Amino acid sequence: MNSPKPSPKVVFLCQRVPWPPDRGDRITTWHLLQHLMQRGADLHIGCFQEEDRDAEGVAFLASRCREIVAPRLDRRARKLTSMRGLLTGEALTLPFFRHGALRAAMRRWSHGRPPDLCFVYSSSMAQYALDEPAGAKVMHFAELDSDKWRQYAKVSGALGRWIYGREATRLLAFEDRVARSFSRSLVVSDVERALFRERIPGVDPVVLPNGVDVEHFTAAATAERHPHTAIFTGVMDYEPNVDGVCWFVERCWPALRQRFPDARLLVVGSKPVAKVQALAQQPGITVTGRVPTTPPWFDRASVAIAPLRLARGVQNKVLEAMSMGLPMVSSPQASQGLGDVPAGTLTIADGEAATIAGTSELFAAPERARAMGLAAAAWVRREWRWERIYQRLDYLLAELGVTFAG
Predict the structure, then answer these.
(1) Where are the domains of the chain?
(2) What is the pLDDT of residues 310-326, one digit of tens each?
(3) CA nearest 30: which of 66, 59, 57, 56?
(4) pTM of the entire predicted model
């Protein structure tokens, strides 16, 4: 009689504690982890705690996996630590996320029976897995972090151009090494795949998009939606979000308020920095800070905006708003990861005039806005639900020889 096949041993590495799923990277890592748990993986998780409430997330995950190692990461202190990269010649990102406890855990997890799969989310965490054995190694880049620094360099002053430009170059060299060492590289969109193939020639990544929890992001009270209310969601200490919403308020909001005196803007998200908090001093603008859940706030709005200027990949804020049945006015940068979007489901607005016009048209025509939102929700629910993403992941892992019982 054959003995049952043991559950695949999986090491999962990511920057942040992947619970609760309340920001972009946590949403993705939690859903991927949840699927691996449901398939019966023997999970070992390595990540960082960044705030006191992360202890709850660690406890939640500890009861659902074999082991989780999550040292505390003090971002202020780590900025000083990262300066070591100037002496070693490496990207500053790498010493920023380097920690002895995680290195020791990775060695221990690789000793004896190496993992069947090492799954890494975010290139900064790949340093722990590069030199350790594993049956298969998957690097989920989402998008190339080096390109984010390249974008920052383009809009910065002389010192920023040097620092960010250096980081873009050094981090790309590390990403190149990782991509050529791991079994598979993943990105979230065809746009990212094209950029990846340009920057790291000879490596063809697999596209594994983000999904959206369509059951959670379901409209409950559309009758309460104010016809002239826009909503922006996201973590509000993240520079692309800060830049995008502040640009919108400075360049677009005055014209919208002049045409629609009762117009409102809801800025919904945790950790608002001072200049985001200051937006609440302007007429019609509410800055919420952290909220327990975002769907009730979506239900107060009639239009969602994503005026991001520093963005790539698939933006969760766009998918979530569309799943809620809201028409979306998005910059090209925030929407390019969606691929071919059906007509009548999304307004792509490039620049100040187009953003004002797109938002104004939806404010002025509530029935059209409603119809557009319903079409958007139907498309997202058909094409972007997590179950479709899980199927792609299972197929990829099976190709690598990582299979699950049942």
Answers:
(1) 9-211+386-399, 222-383
(2) 877 778 999 999 999 99
(3) 57
(4) 0.89
